Amino acid sequence: MARTAEDLRKIQTQLNKLYPEAICMLEHRNAYELTVATILSAQCTDARVNITTPPLFKKYPTPNALASAKTKDVEKLIKPTGFYKNKSKFLIAMAQRVVRYHQGKIPGLAQDLIQLPGVGKKTANVVLSNAFGIPAMAVDTHVGRLARRLGLSFSKNPDRVEKDLCSLFSKKTWTLLHHQLITHGRTTCKAQSPLCNDCLLQPLCPTGLREKKDPHTGRWVKTPERVVSLVPSVTELLCQWGLASSLVGRTNYCIHPAKVLEKIPKVGGTKNPRLKDILAVKPTLVILERTENTLKIAQELEAVRIPILVLDVTDWKSWIKAYQLIGQRLHRESKSKQSIVELKRSIRGQGAKPLKVLILVWKSPWILAGSQSYCGGLVQALGGRILGNTNKSKSYPQRAPKDLERLNPDLILLPTEPYPFNERERQELEKSFPKSKVDIINGELLTWYLSRTSMALRYLKRNYFT
Questions:
Q1: In this structure, are 392 and 293 located in the same domain?
Q2: Which pTM was predicted?
Q3: Cis (ω within 30 of 0) for the bond into 365?
Q4: Residue 263 sits in the same domain as residue 385
Q5: pLDDT (tens digit, 9 = 90+) per residue, 157-168?
C-alpha cells in the first residue's frame, strides 16, 4: 500500500512521542571508536560491544596504534563479539588504510569510508551521522524489518530500503528516525514475535492491521482486535475485562467508564451509527446486539466485509452464550469463565418468593418488559413470573391502561431509563395498584446487560425475592 503524506506524518509523530531523544547505543568518544564499535556490532548486540571496547581502546587508542597491532592480540580482546578472526583482520586493515591514506584520521566522506575494510554502506552512514553530524539513513536489520512491516519499502535490499526511506522523509530527520526505528525494533517490533498489542504504531501498520502477512516471517502477526462496540453495556464489559485499549469506536450512549472512554471516538447512536465513522477507525470487529441495534447497520457492515459479532441477550442461557462468544472472539476466555461463574452464583437457589412482576419501561403508551426481554430474563432467572406478555414474540409489548389493572402484580418495577420515572408517577401507580409494591429502580442496573447482570440479580434477590 502506498503511504500518504498524512501516514508519514502520523508515523513520525508517534515515534517522536515514543523516542524523542533516541541516540546511538554504541559507546564512543570519536569517529575512530565509533567505526571500530560498528564493525564489531555485526551479529552482536550493542551491549556486548560496549563491554568489549573499553579494554580494546585502552590498548589501541588511535588508528596508528591499531594499525601496528598483532592479530592474535586483537582477537583475544574482541572474541566475545563473535566472528572475531574476521573482525580482527578488518579492524587492523581498516586502521592501516586510515593511516596510509587519511593521515591517521577517519575520513568524513561517504566514498572514502566505504573504501575502508570492514566498512559497508550501513557502517559508513552510522559514522557520518553520529560522528560527523551529516544526515544519513543507516539500514540495519531492525530498520529494514520495520520499513517493510510499515509499508515504507518493499525491498529486502538495504540500499533500496535506504533510498525509499530517504525519499519519504525529510533529510534533517534521517538520523533521529534511524535511531527511533532501531529502538522500536528492539523493544516492540521484534523479529519473530512483534508486540503488536503494545505498539502505538499498530493502527498505522498494514502488517499490524493484518492487511498483509508479516514480510519478515511470512506469517500473519498476532494483533489486538480493533473493536467498535455499538452496545453501551458491552462497551463497559470490555473495559471490565481489560480490553479498553482494543476499543476504537463507541456510540454516544457508551458512557461508562467515563474516564476511560473520553478519548475513544463516537460513531453515532445505537440505532443510527454512522458507517463512514466506523470505517474511519478501521475496525477488525464490530459488536452488536439484536434488539439494541438495527438489521440495517449489520447488513451495511457485512456489505463492506467488516466482521461483526451479533449478540442476542434475553434469558440466562443467552447471557452465558454471550460471555462465551465475546471471550472466544477477543481471547478473554478466563474472563468469560469468571463472569459465568459469578452469574451462576447469583442465580443459585433462585428466590424464595415466586413473585408476579410487572416492569414498565415507557409511559404514554405503556410499554412493558416482556418475558423475552433482558429485564424479564432477570426476574425469571430468580423464579419470578413476568406479567402482561400475551405475545411471546415481543420483547417489549404495548398495553392499554385497563389491561394493566387486570394483571394484579405483586411487584411493579419502574426503571429510570429509558423512561425517567419519578416519585410522583410511582405514587400514582401505587394508588392504581393498592395491593402491589411499586418501586423505582436504577435503570442502568436493570437494563445494562452482561456488565451489570450479576449485580442486578443480587440486588433483586436481596430486595424482593427473599
A1: no
A2: 0.59
A3: yes
A4: no
A5: 999 999 999 999
